[in-house]
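All the exercises in this workshop are built on plain-text protein records. There is nothing in a record beyond a sequence line and a structure line. A learned vocabulary of local backbone shapes supplies the integers on the structure line. The question running through the whole workshop is how a given chain folds. Here is such a record, shown just as it appears in the course material:

***
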Amino acid sequence: MALVINEDKCARCGVCEPECPNEAIFQTEDAYVINPALCTECKERYGEPLCEAVCPNEGIHGVKDSLYKKCLSLFG
């Protein structure tokens, strides 16, 4: 599974960015984004995604690998 930030729920508060131990979350001009190449979902150390745990609006969630792979094939 891969993590994504739901732009409709994201308040752009920035609380998720410093929680990421892999620096996979960054801010663009319009929104916060998770780089799937860097995101490990914190499985190796914490057992759960830290960004998802601290998000006050439940704006971060997982998507199935098949959808993630389809997006990568379309957008690189």
